[in-house]
Amino acid sequence: MKRIYAIEQWCIDCKRCEVACKTFHSRSQNPVKAFNFEDAPDARVCVEGGKQLSLAVNCRHCADPKCVESCISGAMQKNPVTGVVTSDPEKCVGCRTCVSACPFGAVHIETVALKCDLCGDGHGEPGEPSCVKACPNRALIYVESEEC
Amino acid sequence: MGEQNGGNMSASKQVDYLILGNSAAGVAAAEKIRAYDRQGSIMMVSPEPYAAYGRPLISYLVEGKTDEDRIGYKPADFYEANVIETRFGKGGEAVKLDAVAHQVAFEDGSVVGYGKVLAAMGSIPFIPPIEGLADRTNVYPFITLDHAKSAWKAAVAATEKAHAEGRTSRAIVIGGGLIGLKAAEALHAHVDEVVVLEMAPRILPAVLDDEGAAILVRELADRGISCMPGITASKLLGDGDAIGCALLTNGEELACDVVVAAVGVRPNAALLSEAGADVERGAVCDSTMRTTLSDVYAAGDITQTIDTLDGSKRPLALWPNAVIQGKVAGANMAAADQAPVFEGNFALNAVDFFDISLLTSGVINPDPEGGYQTRIISDGSAYAKFVTKGDRLFGYILLNRPDNAGIYTAVIDQCIPLSTLAEDFFDQAPTNLDFPQSVRWSRLHRCYPADLDQRGWKEGGE
Amino acid sequence: MLDYVLPRYKVLRDEDLCIQCGVCERSCANDVHKVDEDLGRVTADHAKCVNCQRCVVMCPTKALAIDKWPQVGNGTNNWTLAYMQDIAKQSQTGAVLLSSMGNPKPYPIYWDHLLLNASQVTNPSIDPLREPMETRVFLGGRPDVLKVNERTHAVESTLPPQIRLDVPVMFGAMSFGAISFNAQKALAMAATELGTFFNTGEGGLHKDLEQYGKNTIVQVASGRFGVDPHYLNAGAAIEIKIGQGAKPGIGGHLPGEKVNAEVSRTRMIPEGTDAISPAPHHDIYSIEDLRQLIFSLKEATRYTKPVAVKIAAVHNVAAIASGVARAGADIIVVDGFRGGTGAAPTRIRDNVGIPIELALAAVDQRLRDEGIRSTVSLVASGSIRSSADIVRAIALGADAVYIGSAALIALGCHQCQDCGSGKCNWGIATQRPELTRRLNPEIAAERVANLVRAWNHEIQEMIGGMGINSIDSLRGNRLMLRGVGLNEKELEILGVKYAGE
């Protein structure tokens, strides 16, 4: 499957990736509406660090995801065909067991669990990741990786 | 009909894999078996007349955060798609296991023969030996969906009745552990007042410490749940079948309309011990999840696990642990090539009450002689405690500071030396940048394309 | 004392589009933007803005634009607001005014007065998509006579060393220290990709760029930074920098702030010290001294590499060039007064030197008149802005051109002219790691290579239009140009006829 990888060397802490992710996952998909009117949930990608050293972290879509293992409601699923790991907001109760399990801190809770879904349809079909498109410096690349 | 001394019961059915239980461990095992063995027959049985659901969700159901249509753990076609025969409800309660004859008898008299059997019947609640509790109509455990639905119905009815009589309704929860507090939170939506009694000196005695518990009691009180640590009911009084009042160990009398008994659970392992398997604090299994009886496996709350942090053996009644054990049991039952083994686990609890979050893991009340160091970072309603020994993290409590907790869990799990991590690793939410560069690269870049370098450029294309 | 210095720019933020994401705040090294939680909006400190336009480009909703500070002067022609503000600044600081990049003053741009020929009827134009077009150029000296053995088809004369350019454009001298490592690396990668050269400038050659040596011209400037035999042999050619168009007559100055560990190692000077290049080379006080240096460098490289001499375009540039040619230089680089710089005194940048168009024409003509034009190659630089400028330069006599500012603009430079502060938001004219990381050499090299490739194609179109199929046929071919809006003297110096003639 294709995965997003962060290249620390080129990350400039601009956070355009976060803006693009939040916009894509908002109802309107319009940045002005998403940020100023909708109170859309925060981005699923998170830029750690600051000016001197920064890194965009998002879900690794692990081969054997700890979040799926720990989900008490069955909301977290790994699509067996595409490999994409998604959380179903209808089933999620926001218990945070996944937060305590993810070794990368890639899930956060805003009522329900939110994490990278490769900007797909939310059910495991990947799309065109917005964060990668928005990055001005190729600090996020979307490349074919082995299933892992 | 089955005979007492193990003679052949006449099996009405024969399956390759018989799974007793339809929750985390059972479902995980069934999936794994089917993944490795496309041909073998699988049968799952459970006395609960529902498709698999997560028991931890029952409080959310009562609160209204989910409903019966959405609590199914697996998609509706799970059993069909995996060719699993099911018997949920009548005829689903195993009453006798004959390990020699490879047969299990059920409460309706039916007998099923098996090639391999998995005991994944989970936990059953302790019933507290409180005078006046037995045979009452308005006291409920809070383990299964049916328990929750009954308690819910009773609470709603009690409140209606109370308001009609011009008074407020009260629920008493006996037991301030995780289940008791979740039950309290759930009932809070349906009664006017909830009181939680806890015999131990603090609520959540197993998964929290004194300071954290004190903060939580305060936070819960602010949100309408009164906790009374160090106090329980000595006697339950009432006219007729219903409990109307609790006499507390501190002498107080509390009127109540509904009582929930949530004083703990124990492994539902009688079937195994009666069949001759070793059962200590829970079913004893080897690293393939096989019990001491041949072809009899066990997984989930029913087992006792080796705690990898302190070497102790006890049940680890946690959802992720059950799933992991179920996967291992399933793979080994199907005799998979290079089937994984289970070498133990450690405690990991994540729970939320209203807008409060509590995540704990590992050793949190360290033995004072154990050589542990403790650091506490407290800030208003946020309380964090980290237990370390030398260069390793052994446990944490994170109350209202949940961000990236999984990174701490990974540091415990993988024994990552703390001296290699950033200095402020504990002061605020941990990040991937807290790891040294080469470590964070390999953590975050599994299966990175071999022809690209760390700049994202084609290797050699300087 | 009261600060009379006004902001030069005003940040315009469209509040309807601003989403307070803070990308602008994180993009600005000058601390202009701030997401103000108390006020509930993003504020701007206009006085700090240098109009680099990084925030404008980075804003996810295109909510920003930079305007001129709306303060009018009193309308006089001579006491403009700009002159008055310069005096205000100097009366407060007592310091020399410094500027970066090229001369912005409205002196005539002769490129824009030279029109190109196209073929009609008698000498048909050539379609570059169908016919081969030769844009390759060789730089170096030529012998007066070429002895060829006609039987064996072998050349018997020894040719002096040449470098081959696949396109008539090279990347001008911009030192490591003035620009970032990533910027130089991008130029080196692009030069390699295009089959041309980049120039190290006076800052030495970083060891991680030695792998591009085949496409490098190493510069020996008055400060002699980084110069040792290894350095001289690392490149394909050597350039002695006598002068620079932006600041003829004075030396260079790299503030200590920009001399970090890497710059220090490459220049072989202590970290944190100012890198001063003196005005003259202190071992060149006559043309004979220059000849001595040229031949020292040839000896050090065993006569395998062409030696170039770069001079600024000043009043007697033709005579100077003649002397330089006779001193043994293989290539003469003439840098016009609009050339860029990392930092120079404003008055020198704006007022010293002459236009490259006139200088180039004068040098080319003088060398031809003296019969020594073929002994050297001529390279022109100083604000080459487009492929049309390149065609004109070649027609006036250049063998090839250097681009400096144009290459940086391709990398992302927006000509804010604040390079001297060391806070280039595009990661080009800075050494701060949090800024240089913004220039990913892979992307930057792609941009510059795209630019030069596009220009090369345009050159092919233009010369094809003229009916010629090789740069060789364009070189010094003044007949391909016609002047417009020029007086007799200008036409004479340029050696072109007026349009219509």
Question: Segments of chain B where pLDDT lies below 50 for 5+ residues?
Answer: 1-7
Please outline the major beta sheet of chain B.
7 strands, mixed
Q: What structural category do the secondary elements of chain B indicate? A: alpha/beta
Instruction: Return the CATH class of the largest domain in chain C.
Output: Alpha Beta
Measured as a percent range, the helix fraction of chain C is 25-40%
What does this entry show, briefly?
With 462 residues, chain B is α/β, with parallel strands linked by helices. Chain B has 10 helices and 24 strands. Chain C folds into 2 domains: 9-95, 2-Layer Sandwich (Alpha-Beta Plaits), CATH 3.30.70.20; 167-460, Aldolase class I (TIM Barrel), CATH 3.20.20.70.
Secondary structure layout:
The complex is a heterotrimer of chains A (148), B (462) and C (501).
Chain A: E1 2-6, H1 16-24, H2 31-38, E2 46-49, E3 54-57, H3 66-70, E4 76-78, E5 85-87, H4 97-101, E6 108-110, E7 112-114, H5 130-134, E8 140-144
Antiparallel strand pairs in A: 1-8, 2-3, 4-5, 6-7
Chain B: E1 13-20, H1 24-36, E2 42-46, H2 58-63, H3 78-81, E3 84-88, E4 94-98, E5 103-106, E6 111-119, E7 123-125, E8 139-140, H4 145-164, E9 170-174, H5 178-188, E10 193-198, H6 210-222, E11 225-229, E12 233-237, E13 245-248, E14 253-255, E15 258-261, E16 265-267, H7 270-275, E17 296-298, E18 305-306, E19 313-314, H8 319-333, E20 348-353, E21 356-362, E22 373-379, E23 382-389, E24 392-399, H9 405-413, H10 437-444
Parallel strand pairs in B: 1-2, 1-6, 2-3, 6-17, 8-15, 9-10, 9-15, 10-11
Antiparallel strand pairs in B: 4-5, 5-6, 7-16, 12-13, 13-14, 18-19, 20-21, 21-24, 22-23, 23-24
Helix pairs in contact in B: 1-8
Chain C: E1 9-13, H1 23-27, E2 33-36, E3 41-44, H2 54-58, E4 64-68, H3 81-93, E5 98-99, E6 114-116, E7 137-139, E8 148-149, E9 154-155, E10 163-165, E11 169-173, H4 181-194, E12 198-199, E13 216-220, H5 229-234, E14 237-241, E15 253-254, H6 261-267, E16 275-276, H7 287-300, E17 307-312, H8 317-326, E18 331-335, E19 344-345, H9 346-351, H10 356-369, E20 377-381, H11 387-396, E21 400-403, H12 405-411, H13 433-436, H14 441-466, H15 471-474, E22 481-483, H16 488-494, E23 497-498
Parallel strand pairs in C: 11-12, 11-21, 12-13, 13-14, 14-17, 17-18, 18-20, 20-21, 22-23
Antiparallel strand pairs in C: 1-4, 2-3, 5-19, 6-22, 7-10, 8-9, 15-16
